[in-house]
């Protein structure tokens, strides 16, 4: 009776311990996966902040690019500004829209931090990010093509380089294009992160 | 005892029927989801075929854009070609790379059709698609900016429109830009489909 009592005590113990262990393992793995998703959401938020800085500086640099030469004739003053070129106007508008979208997307990114497993805000952000990536890339590339022409000109179409006269203007628009390409890189990482966070876990 | 026996028979019956029903529902939903993923993979494949057509036609149109004017002087012949402009050379190279990538991505797309639940080829395609989208968009936008200048010129920088002289050349490069933007739209849908197919199911 003593040994029988000890066996009946022994039997539930080993079957109880693995159950407890298994439960603990499952819980910790689930928590790790939740933590991984939360880390991804925080990275998403930080990348968005960086994108806002890059996008706003691109828009501001382009918007303030304006140079007047110190000499002028009676009828004409030599001046270069972004609004002489439709491409640069498109650049300014596109970068303003993208920066505004990034600011408005911050609340959704915070929701993704608070609820790492909610798919709704993540899909919304992914779709909008793809649209914003396309807009930013097109603005940056179009401005880069015109900046290249401004620096080097083109002999076969008789387009002369204007950066000899407007050096400060050219430096500013070149800086704006670089900032826009930084924004493009930010969006590429944002889309990659969103897509991988949407994976089945 | 009679009523006790009937209750013990009644109890397992209602608990057994919902179990069988629940199992059948789970199986059919899982099959529906598998079929949904297969449909997405087939759409992916068809979109890639359309992207190849658009990308190759953009590259071919740009590569054959070449116009000589019917008059020439003793020292100079008036000719417009894509290789006068670095932007158009970049366009041709980028669209060739993108078309080649799309052809090489077809086997991975077929793997995704055969195995709709495999995440590996889908993640690979997603990453490469994002890179290809950025490349295509930048080529299309840069070429579009220069095509706009060729059509309209720019008065403040004294760049004259060249499309008055080279009408056929301008038509060809405009067509190439349109085809490139069609490729951009194809890539946007490809990325969206890949990301949604990666969702947890």
TrEMBL record, chains A, B:
GO terms for biological process: cell wall organization. The keyword Transmembrane applies. Its main location: membrane. It is a multi-pass membrane protein. Keywords: Cell membrane, Cell wall biogenesis/degradation, Membrane, Transmembrane, Transmembrane helix. Residues 1-22 are annotated as: Disordered. Homodimer and heterodimers. It comes from Ziziphus jujuba (Chinese jujube). It is found in: Cell membrane. Belongs to the Casparian strip membrane proteins (CASP) family. This is CASP-like protein. The chain crosses the membrane at residues 45-63, 90-114, 126-150, 176-198.
